[in-house]
Amino acid sequence: MESFPTIHTNFWDATIAVPVVLIVTEIIKLILPIPRTMIPTVATLIGLIISIFFAHRGDLGAGIFMGFFYGNAAVGAFSSLKISLIAFKKRKNKKSSSNIQSP
Question: How far is CA 37 from CA 23, 45, 75, 82, in A?
Answer without folding.
Answer: 18, 14, 12, 16
